[in-house]
Amino acid sequence: MKNPKKLVSFAVAAALAGLASGAVAGGFAIGTQSGSGTGNAFAGGAAAADDASVAWFNPAAMTLIPGTQIAGALHALKPSFKFENNGSTGAVFGNPGTGEGGDGGDWAFVPNGFMTMAINPKLSFGLALNAPFGLATEYDNGWRGQLKALKSEITAVNINPSVAYKVSDSVSIGVGVSVQRLEATLTKAANAAGTNIAELKADDIGYGFNLGLTVQATPDTRIGVSYRSSIKYELEGTVTFSAAAAAANNGGVRADLEVPDSASISVFHRLNPKWELMGDITWTGWSTVQKFDAIRTTNAGAGIGTIVDSETFNWKDTWRFGVGANYKMSDQTKFRFGVALDETPTNDVDRTPRLPDQDRTWLAFGVQYKPSKAGILDVGYAHEFIKDATVNNTLAGAGTLSGTFKNKADIFSVQYSHTF
């Protein structure tokens, strides 16, 4: 990589050191982008202006946050992906090997950081440090599906500065830019015996933008609209093989990947002094993810330009629908509730163990407590009920891996916000 890219890569990685990934939304998106939003299943994110996390959800809403505020959140994610065989065939997939792979999911810890600053009554500045995409699945060595997947990990870390301008008493607009580093690690067995493991590692820096609009339709009703662009990556890295006899196949690789754009419209309504209602609809352009081809860039194996690994996705665009409510018990304490329906971009033909995703339903609750005039503490929990995900993968010489993944996910979030 060129030196400027290395500097940007270092800055992003340092900002979120120790990040672990875990997909808890459709595709390989990470749906947990604020501690306050978890309790509402992230319903109304583009219109709710609870804290500095609006710098990510809708930069226009930053004009609603007075003074300077910082917010830090930590999410503990526990996805579960358990394979149940259903008639796998062939010399490899039909052989149970060491079993069904165990639980492909594990604990992951994802931090977020946000800042907003009111420069003057009309102009605000904000910054989001977060992880918008992530994937982590890992199965036991020697399991029946090892020729398709052992470890799959994608980590994206993002720096997103933005500005907002108050056009009038009821309308604000916002714009931001993203500098995002994505790193991918994929491993699988390269032979039927599992004695040769292929590992592909690649990364790149990508750039995007986001736009926002808020309209205070009535004193009690606010509408928010936001858009986030897709980001194209030209990943560069290496493929290596664990068996000494296969070392001659080690070498450089490249692969193209485009993470999706998305658009949201949200409504926030204050029903009375005690109750707040919210809802949102989000579209995500997952059809950008059709295929992943790792192409050799050095004269190893079959030579430059040949495909060393290929993954077919054929994903579709998706919709997410969320509704939520807040109950203000006192000036210090607020309870949060939320439900969301989150579509998967995957399909029953091309789905693989690398990401056995399916439609999911969120059920969430949380509590906000204000220990002081300047401080806000949010705690949230969400459980994701995920439909069973069928897998039918055929590989020449190995047979067909056929079965069902029993999936679920739990999210625990804590966030502290402070106004100066």
Could you explain how this protein is built, in words?
It is a single chain. The chain is 5% helix and 55% strand. By secondary structure, it is mostly beta strands. It has one domain: Outer membrane protein transport protein (OMPP1/FadL/TodX) (Porin, Beta Barrel), CATH 2.40.160. Strand 2 and strand 3 form a beta hairpin. The chain is elongated. The N terminus is likely disordered.
Walk me through the topology.
Elements: H1 3-15, H2 35-38, H3 54-57, E1 68-85, E2 108-118, E3 123-130, E4 134-138, E5 151-166, E6 171-189, E7 197-218, E8 221-228, E9 231-241, E10 251-259, E11 262-270, E12 275-284, E13 291-296, E14 307-312, E15 318-328, E16 333-342, E17 360-369, E18 375-386, E19 389-395, E20 399-419
Antiparallel strand pairs: 1-2, 1-20, 2-3, 3-5, 4-5, 5-6, 6-7, 7-8, 7-9, 8-11, 9-10, 10-13, 11-12, 12-15, 13-14, 15-16, 16-17, 17-18, 18-20, 19-20
Most strands sheet: 14 strands, antiparallel, barrel
Label the CATH architecture.
Beta Barrel
- How many structural domains in the coordinates? 1
Question: Average pLDDT, to the nearest integer?
Answer: 93
**Helix/strand class:** mainly beta
Instruction: Tell me what portion of residues adopts beta-strand conformation.
Output: over 45%
N-to-C order of helices and strands: HHHEEEEEEEEEEEEEEEEEEEE
